Structure formats: C-alpha cells, structure tokens
Amino acid sequence: MCPLLSPLFLVVLLIFLTTTFHSALAAVSITTSKKATKVTKTLSGRIEMCLSCHHERPDKAHGRDVLGCSVCHLGNPLAGTPFEAHKGMILNPGDLRVAQKTCGQEGCHVEQVKDIKNTLMSTNRGIISTLRYYWGETDDNNHALTVEDLIKPDHPQSLALDYFRKLCGTCHLWLPRNSMPGFIAEKGGGCTACHNKKPKVAPGKKGERHPYITRDIPMENCVRCHNRSGRIGLSYQGLYESEGYGTPYEDGELSAQELPDGRFVQKIQPDIHYEKGLVCIDCHSQKELMGDGRQRAHFYQQVEVRCTTCHGGQQTLKKLLAYQESKKKFPMLNNLVAAPGGTIALKGKHDGKLHPLKPFSEAKCRNQQHENLSCQACHSPWVPQCYGCHVRYQRGEKQLDKLSLKETFGNWKEFRSYMRFESPVLGVLKDEKGHEASPEVVILVPG
C-alpha cells in the first residue's frame, strides 16, 4: 500500500479536515454574529452604522455625533458586519501616506496637509543635507533630498544616508505610528504626532479608548523628538543629560531621573520661560511648525518668532495684535491679548495665564558693544556640550533600517563622552559658501 494512503495517514487527515472545518465555522460565527443593531445619522448628515459598536469620542469637533467614524477612518459605514465595515479602514488617519484622503479631504484641513509635507519635521532636509555635506557626498548643505525621497523603493544610497536611516530615522512625521518597539512607538504618525493626547479618564471606560485630538499640543509631544542633538527639549526644562552610568547617584543607588530611552538626567536651572509656565506652542507659531507650503533647508529659515517679537516693546506688539485681528493667514502669535492698563500680554495656551511682556533695554542690548550679539548669547546660562562623540560602523552586521523597517547590512553605534554643561561657545553663522549669513553672534552647541 502507498504510505500516503495508510490508515494512520487517513486518520490524521480526517482529524485535520474536521478541525479546519470547525475553525472555519468559528471564524464565520465570529465575523457574522456581531451585527449593527441601529442606524445613526450624524450632524453632518451621514449614515453611520459604525456607531452601533463604537463609542469612542475623539473631541468635540471630530466627535462621533458630528462626523462619525468613516470620515476619518474610511471603511464602509453602511455595512452591517465588522468584516465588511472594516474593509479599507485606516487606523491612523493622520499618517502622511493617507492624510490627503482623511485629514486633508475637501472641507477639512486641505491646506494644512499640503503644507505639513514640506515642513522640516517632515522633510528633515537640514539633517540629511548637512550630514551628506560633512561626509563629502554633496557640495552644499542645502540639497533638496527629503525623507519622502528616502522611503521610495528607488531611493538613493550612501554611507551617510545609511547612517541617517539607522540612527536618525525615527524623528520625522513620515514614520508610521506604532511601527517601532518601546518608547519610539509613539513617535511619528503625521498629524497624530502632535495633535494627539491620551484619554484623560481611566483606560477601559466605555467610549474613552480613542486618543484625544487637540490643538493644545502638550510639551511632551514636542520633547518626544526634540531631545537629542541640541537637546533643546531637555535644556528648556532644565534637564541635563549626564555622563551615564546612573549618575548622579541617589543614596548610593542609580538615579531615578531617567528618560524613556534609558538616558539619565540631572535637574538643573531651566529656561526662564519654562519657569513662568510657558510651553512650546506659546511661542512657536503655526507657520514655524506646519509650514507655509514652501520647503526650507534649515530651521533658522523657518523660524519667525524671535525674542524681539515679544520683547520689542508695546508699539511692536500693537502692530502684531492688529495684524492678528485682521484675520490674515499665519498670524505670528495668535495668543497676544489686550491686558489691563492698555498693555498687551501673552496668554498661555495651556493655562490661560497672562504673561506681561517686558521690553528689552535699548541702552544695554543695542549699544555699540552689544548690537551684534543675539539675545541667547547673553541670556543662556548653560548649554549641553559633547566633544567626545564618535561612531563605530560594522559592515558585516545587520541593523534595523528605520525607514524601510527591515534589517539590512551595516551596523552603526554611537558612543559619547565628555558630556558637560557650561557657558555656551559663541560663533558667527555662515552660509553654505562660507560667507557670514548674519553679523549676529550666536550660540554653538557641539555634539
């Protein structure tokens, strides 16, 4: 007898077919037993059978009673079963790969989605071009190569770009949310990277699992990415990244002051604006963060709010307030408000607190000796400095490519030493041709 037709084989085959059949019936039962029990009409006039099962409440503007689910998450809102309803559904509508169909659809945030794809948080142009420039792969540090170019199948390749893909490739808006392990999972996600807060109530409560959509961006969302290189997100809060090794020790044990990625920090003097309760979005404008549709190579080309914007005196502030009230596009500071005594103050976007804006001293700040000094050159008591950073490259070892999300050959590892904080090094900013871009003396942060 052929061994394939032995009694034992037939018994095993019969058990397998029976088990498979019952599993298939169970799967069908699962997908068909749960059906929509009611038809809901949203305030926008759409029929949403999704609301029969889903009770999530993102926020008032995007509320379930206003828009429903399918406007943002797509899928089929007229289907009666989960299997059919979830076909073509998008978990994160803010992902830049689909945002034009979701957040950027007609009647919603069309211009914002177009603009955000050209902002530095999406393109990383400055990081990429400067890295390639110092590695001798390009003639200038303004090259228009972006993250969007690097995620395409036919992307350019080089050592500098491989370094970027494996060590720098998580701090940009094109990164799919939850595509990386650990704390990095909360990075990226396009619009969701900023406009997203965790539910305020305890997890598990009905209707509160959906992240809260907000314009009131919490500082923790900003610091999630802005905590390396210049470490501005840490310095602002008075957090100095220590040498490591769990120092400074607390009662003979490792320090409890630790960042989500395992780096130890020490609490020292924070920025005066942080002490007064201001958060990132109180000063950084929509144009700075979301862009105006134009691509720029470096952050200083996109920054428009400067120290003198708020501290330039009441006449300057009155002009800004008038511009804001004229409903022009991209007001520099939309939280300037009239204060008692005919003055103008900055209103905190988190707490609503009014912050009086003291003008700088013309005699001290604009005299002949100080006229070329930036405000930060005198008013920054310390900056983080790392002179001993170096990198090891192992060609034969594999490492995760953060853009393709695949393991490829070439393993990079950063080492650092001589971490310290002290009075900042000063220098004069030069353009890509070596000319002084500005006579202003600025802070340099090595590392």
Describe this structure as you would to a colleague.
There is one protein chain. This protein has 447 residues and is an alpha+beta fold. Among the domains are: 38-89, no CATH class; 313-359. It is built from 18 helices and 13 strands. It is globular. The termini are far apart. The relative contact order is 0.08. Mean pLDDT is 85; it is low at 1-5 and 7-32.
Number of strands: 13
Strand content: 5-15%
Can you tell me the residue ranges where pLDDT is under 50 for at least 5 consecutive residues?
1-5, 7-32
Radius of gyration: 27 Å
Structural class by helix and strand composition:
alpha+beta
Major sheet description: 3 strands, antiparallel
Quaternary structure: single chain
In helices, the fraction of residues equals: 25-40%
Cα distance, first to last residue? 75 Å
Q: Given the C-alpha coordinates, what overall shape results?
A: globular
What's the pLDDT, averaged over the residues? 85
Number of helices: 18
